[in-house]
Amino acid sequence: MSDIKQNLLNFREKLAEIEKRYHRSSGSVLLLAVSKNQSVEKISEAVASGQMAFGENYLQEALEKIAFFTEKSLDWHFIGPIQSNKTKKISEFFNWVHSVDNARIAKRLNDQRPLHLPPLNICLEVNISEEKTKSGVNIEDILPLAEYCLTLPRLKLRGLMTIPAQEKTIEAQRAQFHKLKILSESLQQKGFMLDTLSMGMSDDWEAAVAEGATIVRIGTRIFGKRI
Ligand SMILES: *Cc1c(COP(=O)(O)O)cnc(C)c1O
Questions:
Q1: What's the pLDDT score for residue 227?
Q2: Which residues contact 219 (CB under 8 A, 6 or more apart)?
Q3: Rounded distance, CA 8 to CA 5, Å?
Q4: Residue range 175-190: average pLDDT?
Q5: Is 107 near ligand 1, meaning CB less than 6 Å away?
Q6: Phi-psi region of 93 (alpha: psi -120 to 50; beta: other; left: phi over 0)
Q7: Any ligand 1 atom below 6 A from CB of 37
Q8: Which atom of ligand 1 is found nearest the CA of 203?
Q9: What's the mean pLDDT in 49-59?
Q10: Which long-range contacts (CB under 8 A, 24 or more apart) does 88-93 make?
Q11: pLDDT at 25
Q12: Confidence check: pLDDT of 226 > 90
């Protein structure tokens, strides 16, 4: 069996166990395989093991992979920083964007989403640890941005995403993810129909699942170190 097949089997088994441990319903967490800097050969192995959802950070690299796999109807998620000259292709070739963090980018994605496609699923990226250097909206700015996104008919606001500061203990990790969960609940109380919390990577995904993640974004644990 290939390493990637084995890694996927191991991860899915562990994910089922962690869902159970934290009283999450079985299958409620989507595994997004983060394939940035990974070859099409490796992605093919993951596809052969039943993996359909992939996350990419770099547009040019992603477009080549998307073209390579066109017959497979894979589910492509854009998860990296977005420059405004990239929004057209992103809105054309992806089903999801997790990293929307300002109104100008949201508007461009909306205006450029091709009419033959359904509205683009988006998450707003939140700078939950309030680090100066991080991308993401500040917590206090999330409500106006979420309200603005509702006025854009070609976007479907699904939820929130975060990349928290690295923490060593599961308790400290959970505290960060808990903040995103609370923020999401406060938006839901205001009437936003959100069903997605995109949080958790190779080193902190268990804490994220404990706090309600519905999408975990896993790279190295599936594909090995990036080249
Ligand atoms: C690279 C990346 C991941 C995956 O990171 P791993 O630690 O390799 O699992 C997840 N989310 C985002 C936004 C990334 O850029």
A1: 74
A2: 33, 34, 35, 36, 38, 55, 201, 202, 226
A3: 5
A4: 98
A5: no
A6: alpha
A7: no
A8: 7
A9: 98
A10: 88/112, 89/59, 89/63, 90/59, 91/120, 91/154, 92/117, 93/62, 93/63, 93/66
A11: 97
A12: no
């309030």: which residue's tokens?
Answer: 130
Q: Is the CB of 202 under 6 A from ligand 1?
A: yes
Distance 116 CA to ligand 1 centre (A): 31
**pLDDT number for residue 1:** 74
Residue pointed to by tokens 């106006």: 144
Probe residue for ligand 1, chosen from 100, 201, 202, 221 as the CB with the greatest number of ligand atoms within 8 Å: 201
> Quick one: pLDDT at residue 198?
98
